[in-house]
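hi! just following up on the protien thing from before. the input was this:
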Amino acid sequence: MKKLNPTHIRYREADPVPVKSSTVKDVLREPNPLMTTSEFLEKVCWLLLLNYNVFIVPIFRSWIDKETGAERRYYEALYPIMPTQVDFIEDASGRLFCHFWFMNGYDTTVPYDDIIHIRYNYSVNTYMGGGLDGQPNHQALLDTLKLNDTLLKGVAKAMKSSYAVNGVVKYNTMMDDGKTVAALAELERKLMNNESGFLPLDLKADFTPLQHTASIVDEDTLRFIDEKILRTWGVPLCILKGDYTKEQYEAFYQKTLEPLVISISQALTKKMFTA
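and the predicted 3d structure came back as:
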């Protein structure tokens, strides 16, 4: 999505023609002083997939054209915002407003017509994307992530078990404390210097190995969990790894990326152009 190059175009009959100079083109090329175009698109997509809604506030100066009587706008910036709460308010005339609440305690009310609102998984809620409450339901994803975390911790524990006690050395003679310490020191030296995996012992000692039954999660199970997580966002494993064919990328673009591109394009077009 960061590779997109949003452009202001006009249609002449059925042919799209790029507009050479306009404030819309300028603001798409440099959305605001804090972001490049790619960063703006990344922020928009991140908020959209996180909250299933993203609100963009356009900063502009407007006036009425004396000849046509139509509203004209000079765009200066586009800001994706992160409100903690959004209330939709309708006045007596039926005009819709958005009341935004922010983390720092600031709140403001803006006409909905002046807000660029992009929705994801738009379903039962009239105004918001997501579920009935206008929020995403990530519980299934969280359950899968918890399962993945449990499996990875199991792998870590299995690896640690390989460093645990692997056997017991029994000395067949009576030894005082001094000889015991010396024998243990000699055993440690042999363990540290051992490279073959075999521990040399004399007839005075017996080594009894301890069997470990730690189970490692098989590769197919781990791959299944990874793919289950990625399917939530419509991203196949080959795309994430960067090892994909032309056909795989085309399918990924049409299924996952293109719907987002269309949603963003239509939302910008609807709100940024006056009648």
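Residues 166-210 form one domain.
Helices lie at 23-29, 37-51, 139-161, 177-193, 219-231, 237-241, 246-272.
cheers
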